[in-house]
Structure formats: C-alpha cells, structure tokens
Design goal:
Layout (H helix, E strand, L loop, with lengths): L11 E2 L6 E2 L5 E12 L4 E12 L17
Protein name: DUF2180 family protein
C-alpha cells in the first residue's frame, strides 16, 4: 500500500478510517476498545490502547451516533 498523503510505502493504517500512512505521516493517540460499568464502584471504565495509529486527517466523533434504522 501507498501512503494516502505522499504515495511513499505505507507502514500502517489509521485505526479510525483505514487510510494507509507512512512513518512521516503517522500520528498516534488513544483508542477505546471497550467501555463498561463497574458494579461495585458505580462508575464507567474504559479499556484503552494509548498509541493507536491515526492519519491526522479523519475526525472521529466524540460521542456515538444514533442509528434508528438498525433497530
């Protein structure tokens, strides 16, 4: 695969949108794998990967999007 930005050889794909990126264009940030409620402490906890690959162009939404057509 080639980098989305410069057409050099890609080393990874964005975890959010799938764009291929080379080492020069790769960005890193947190990615939430799972969110759960803790019964004993009554709080929300998340299992997070700290250094997930991002392309830096896509903008993941901060909250879920309703999709009533799938209900």
């Amino acid at each position: 695969m080639l980098c989305w930005f410069c057409a050099e050889s890609a080393r990874a794909a964005c975890r959010f949108c799938g764009r291929a990126v080379c080492p020069d264009h790769a960005r890193f940030g947190p990615y939430i794998l799972q969110v759960s409620h803790s019964d004993s402490r009554r709080r929300v906890e998340a299992l997070v990967v700290e250094d997930a690959v991002r392309c830096g162009t896509c903008r993941p939404r901060p909250s879920p999007v309703a999709m009533p057509e799938l209900d």
